[in-house]
Amino acid sequence: MARTDDSDLRLRWTGRLSLTARILAVNIFALAILAGSLFYLDSFRSRLTSARLQQAQTEARVIADALRAAAPASRHALLVKIGRDSGTRLQVFSADGAEQMDSWEGAAPTYQLRNPDEEPWVKKAALALDKVIDAIVGAPSAPDFLPPAAERLQAWPEAVTALRQQRPVTGLRRAPDGTAFVSAAAPTLVDGPAVLLLTANERDVRRVMRSERLTLGFILAGTILLSVLLSLFLARTIALPLRRLARAAQRVRLGRAREVSVPLLPARKDEIGLLARALHDMTQSLRYRIDATEAFAADVTHELKNPLASLRSAVDSLDRVEDPAARQQLLEIIRDDVARLDRLIVDIAEVSRLDAELSRARFEPVDLGRLLESLLGLWDARAAERGVRIAFARPRVGTAVVMGEESRLARVFDNVVDNAISFSPEGGLIEVSAVRTGEAVVGCITDEGPGVPEGAREAIFNRFHSMRPEGEAFGRHSGLGLAIAKAIVEGHDGQIMVEDRHDGRTGARFVIRMPGVSV
User: Fold this and answer.
1) Are 172 and 53 in contact (CB under 8 A)?
2) What φ, ψ does residue 319 adopt, rounded to 5°?
3) Up-side HSE of residue 377: CA atoms within 13 Å toward CB?
4) Which end of the chain is more exposed for a tag (fewer CB within 10 A), N or C?
5) Mean pLDDT by 10 residues, the chain (519 residues)
């Protein structure tokens, strides 16, 4: 079977996912982009750490210059004061590796390395989370800091390098509790060549990072919650109604219930509401067509039984009748019944395919004036057999133009005129006209027959309607002529009705109204 879905509506691999899953996937994808801000935080931490290293290097160089310029007696006091104010530890090592001065000597330590095993569980959980996020973003890991067993120059590689190369050198390590441990060394002169070592435990870097991460976490959690709620809302307002409509359509297809309730969703003015109402109307139309088909089948069965019963009776009697006149009469009955069956079958076939053919027909401009004029010869010959006259009021050329299929429109007027001929008395006059009235074209067929009672004006357009004029031989009409005419007119967006004559005389006036077009 050929594919009928449009290329712009066709889904690839996502076609296997439900609408709810696709809505969630789209929203979660957007959240994943937001979660990518974790990478930004890692970049922010790198920049912040680099700034602290640069600051430590600058401070070490400035302090080294200050020690060189200070009086020997005031150097230790200056070192202690600067260390206390800056929150760092300042040490001076001589070229032989011995420690000459320490800002912590005789003063309180400016920082303290914490043992993570002694931290409360909240801190341990935060440290574990730090490690997980660092692993996710692929953050570079600094070497662990191990306090030296002895305060010697050789325990600090950056100090050895700074003394040897006579330039500031920085170092970055990770303290036991995961915080950044920053060091900077700068060459100086204190009773000979020496090096100043500045160390600091930059706990505020992690504090800033955790604060930013917590803020981002709250934003991300709130966004996730809102996104999930919005996704569920969309799923409820889109996927759920569609699922119910699909189940209703499935029940209609399976025919499990005579009356299938399709949700109307009258409060919804969006595409889902339009779809629901369209499916409801389609179901109602389908149910009407099914009922009409069943009724039509029942009517066909009933109408075929009558000539078949008559035919069977005549055939059964033919073998038992010896009188030639009686046999001839039975043969006439057989011929009439066969002719009646033939008319019924032809008309039934036309009615059954009429809707489908009209839906596929290509409508073109049809001038009803010319069409009716072309049928006059046929009507005159048929009317002459009953002594009936036909008068045609020709409209101006190009005024009574409609869009339609010419052969079908000819069948409409032919059926109505044939009906008028049947009911017209001998010597009666049938008037046929077609005029343009505003935006419509109105065709009228008026006869001088008995007219149509007001209570039967709808019924005469029903299939197999049996009201026939007095004196007409039984079975000459199938009872489908006016039903066919009505179906064709309505297929052309028109209307057909019957009313009394406008001049007060006895008779019927059939009015056929269809949209007109300009040429």
Assistant:
1) yes
2) -70, -25
3) 3
4) N
5) 45 53 68 64 76 91 90 90 92 91 89 79 70 66 84 91 92 85 90 90 79 74 78 75 78 64 69 77 75 67 70 79 80 79 72 65 88 91 90 88 90 90 90 91 92 85 64 54 85 91 89 88
The helix/strand/coil state of 259 is coil
SS (HEC) of 403-415: EECHHHHHHHHHH
| Coil vs helix vs strand at 477 | coil
* 382's tokens: 């048929």
> How far is CA 26 from each of CA 121, 228, 349, rounded to the nearest angstrom?
37, 11, 54
Q: Report residue 123 as tokens.
A: 């801190």
Torsion angle, CA of 393/399/404/405, rounded to 10 degrees?
50
Per-residue tokens: 180:
């950044």
Using alpha carbons, select from 187, 156, 161 the residue that is nearest to residue 173.
156
CB neighbour class for 467 (10 Å; exposed up to 12, middle 13-18, buried from 19): exposed
Using DSSP, state whether 79 is helix, strand or coil. helix
d(CA 443, CA 415) in angstroms, rounded, equals 13
Please state whether the predicted TM-score (pTM) of the whole model is above 0.85.
Answer: no
φ, ψ of residue 132 to 5 degrees: the values are -65, -45
Distance, in Å, from the CA atom of 514 to the CA atom of 440, rounded to the nearest integer, reads: 6
